[in-house]
Design a protein that fits this description.
mainly alpha
């Protein structure tokens, strides 16, 4: 069981590393946020599951499940709120970005 937990934890740390690389490599705040949120959510889930599987005798499975649910619920919501606030204060998209759906919604009069 410890080996399986170590493999799952390693997989989670790889996702966390890829999220960090995405934050460094992406051209603007919106793309960085998307790369960081998706990879860190999945990386955190795998990391916590690996710890839970590797140390199953400690009785922390319930706490790990609560942590995972908290991350799954709050990470995308907070990322969306930060992206919308960034757009609202006028942070521009990168030149290579093709579409700005929030601007299109604003221009058409539909505001969520």
């Amino acid at each position: 069981m410890e080996l399986l937990g170590a493999i799952i934890t390693l997989l989670g740390s790889i996702f966390l590393l890829l999220g960090a690389l995405g934050i460094v490599r992406m051209p603007d705040v919106y793309n960085r946020m998307q790369a960081g949120t998706k990879a860190t959510t999945l990386g955190s889930i795998f990391f916590l599951l690996g710890i839970s599987v590797g140390h199953h005798q400690c009785g922390c499975v319930g706490k790990v499940i609560i942590l995972i649910l908290f991350i799954v619920i709050t990470n995308p919501i907070s990322s969306n709120a930060i992206a919308r606030a960034s757009h609202f204060i006028g942070i521009k998209l990168a030149d290579i970005s093709k579409k700005d759906e929030l601007q299109e919604d604003k221009n058409s009069g539909v505001v969520e």
